[in-house]
């Protein structure tokens, strides 16, 4: 595993992810990422894999609508971050990182469906899953993007967190091989509610 020193992993494009993340990151190969993603490990493995994915794709530029396939579909696999201000989700870190598997169809208004699960917070695992549905592809201000609904319930230590909102991925690369986006969600647990965000980083398989 090659160790790469970096002071900032900046987001791709103007739709944004999270500003810049300061960290020392382990850059790993796609094969190693696939192996690690299939094995639950402690210490926030999802966050390390997310940062490796960001590092690998940070030089890509926004796709044009003409760059996307005119028809057919593709699977995008990566990670989503539920941002926590710790008012509802009493997270150790400021984000829960889950594994995303999305099916995107091209042609017409397109579609996006999928699942985000196996969330962890600095190594603490969360149960439950989020469903992605009703996605469509549109021409955003900076290029094409796919936007859908995201909803579901996450659980930890006897508490449950209902999540509802949208999830967006702008297309990056010469043929739209990478999704990076940021959107609004609401997190509710009992009588407590927080308006926060969810980010997406996923690569076409």
What does this structure look like?
The protein is mainly beta. It has two helices and twelve strands. β11 and β12 form a beta hairpin. The chain is globular and about 45 Å long. Residues 1-43 have low confidence and may be disordered.
Offer a concise description of the structure.
With 205 residues, this protein is mainly beta. It has helices at residues 30-37, 45-57, and strands at 2-4, 9-10, 20-21, 25-27, 73-83, 95-105, 111-121, 124-140, 143-156, 159-172, 178-189, 192-204.
- Oligomeric composition of the shown chains: single chain
Strand count, sense and barrel status of the largest sheet are:
8 strands, antiparallel, barrel
Cα(first) to Cα(last) distance is: 22 Å
Low-pLDDT segments: 1-43
Q: What is the arithmetic mean of pLDDT?
A: 83
- What percent of residues are in strands? over 45%
Please provide the count of β strands.
12
Amount of helix: 10-25%
Give the ordered list of helices and strands. EEEEHHEEEEEEEE
Shape: globular
Write down the Rg: 16 Å
**Strand arrangement, largest sheet?**
5-6-7-8-9-10-11-12
- What is the SS-derived class? mainly beta
Q: Tally the helices.
A: 2
């Amino acid at each position: 595993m090659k160790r790469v020193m970096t002071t900032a992993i900046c987001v791709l494009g103007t739709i944004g992810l999270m500003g810049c993340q300061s960290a020392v990151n382990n850059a790993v190969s796609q094969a190693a990422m696939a192996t690690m993603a299939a094995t639950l490990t402690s210490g926030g493995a999802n966050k390390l894999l997310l940062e490796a994915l960001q590092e690998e794709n940070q030089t890509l530029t926004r796709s044009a609508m003409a760059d996307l396939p005119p028809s057919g579909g593709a699977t995008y696999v990566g990670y989503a971050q539920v941002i926590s201000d710790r008012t509802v989700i009493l997270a150790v870190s400021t984000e829960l990182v889950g594994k995303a598997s999305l099916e995107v169809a091209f042609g017409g208004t397109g579609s996006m469906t999928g699942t985000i699960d196996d969330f962890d917070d600095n190594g603490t695992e969360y149960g439950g899953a989020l469903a992605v549905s009703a996605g469509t592809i549109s021409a955003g201000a900076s290029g094409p993007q796919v936007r859908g609904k995201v909803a579901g319930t996450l659980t930890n230590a006897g508490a449950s967190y209902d999540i509802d909102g949208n999830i967006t991925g702008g297309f990056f690369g010469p043929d739209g091989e990478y999704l990076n986006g940021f959107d609004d969600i609401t997190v509710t647990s009992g009588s407590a509610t927080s308006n926060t965000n969810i980010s997406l980083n996923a690569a076409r398989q």
